[in-house]
Amino acid sequence: MDLDELSDRFAVSKMTIHRDLDDLEQAGMLRKVRGGATIEAGSHFESDFRFRQQQEGEAKRRMAEAALELVEPGMTVMVNDGSMASVLGELLPQKRPLTVITNNAAIIDRLKTESGINLIAVGGRYSVKFNGFFGVVAEQALSRLSADIAFISTPAVSGLRVYHMDDDVVRSKRAMIASAARRCLLLNHKRFNHTALHVLATIDEFEVIITDQEPSVDVRTALEGANVPLRVASQASK
């Protein structure tokens, strides 16, 4: 949103808008940029879960359906935080019986009454921004569990590195990666060629990457060089 547009829309001064944007940025709701504000991720910023949950709904659904093809009844499945992962959580009952391990509050709420789902909710410090549980308690719990497959989502990939802007989130995702026999990376195509503050993993730590649209040629070439399969959950493949 443009600063002038916000000022005109709410009939207040630019200074008032500046102060409001400062407060919203402090609360983790948006990121101030030159001349306005955005909810798009930056190297140090990820928007609030409530915003992300409303974005790219169809793309997330296609990616979740592609991820579901990797799940078989009887498996133990880890699913991390995030709005993309929460959509996958909604579909998991289709593959019951399953054991589902997650720190994602949206998935916990969705699966807590489902028959045929052995739900292991990872506790810890709750984050409103990421709508999940993190910290030492979560990391220790994950380190003492084992899964057939872990689904890891991320806001940034550049070259052969996977990034995230929050160190607590990185540690919980790393704990899942270490505790799973197979790892699948879930990534919106818009997040290729972006970085964030922390390196979360390298591409070759994953058996497969699922995205919603074909990435650029240079991205595809880099992934092929790392020998990591890329599945594109495009509209045409449905």
From TrEMBL:
Originating species: Rhizobium giardinii
**Locate the HTH deoR-type domain: which residues?**
1-39
Q: What is this protein called?
A: DeoR/GlpR family transcriptional regulator of sugar metabolism
A GO term for molecular function: DNA-binding transcription factor activity
Pfam families in UniProt: DeoRC (PF00455), HTH_DeoR (PF08220)
Q: Has the keyword RNA-binding been applied to this entry? A: no
Q: Does the keyword Plastid apply?
A: no
Q: Identify the domain of life.
A: Bacteria
The entry's keywords = Repressor, Transcription, Transcription regulation
SMART domains, A to Z: DeoRC, HTH_DEOR
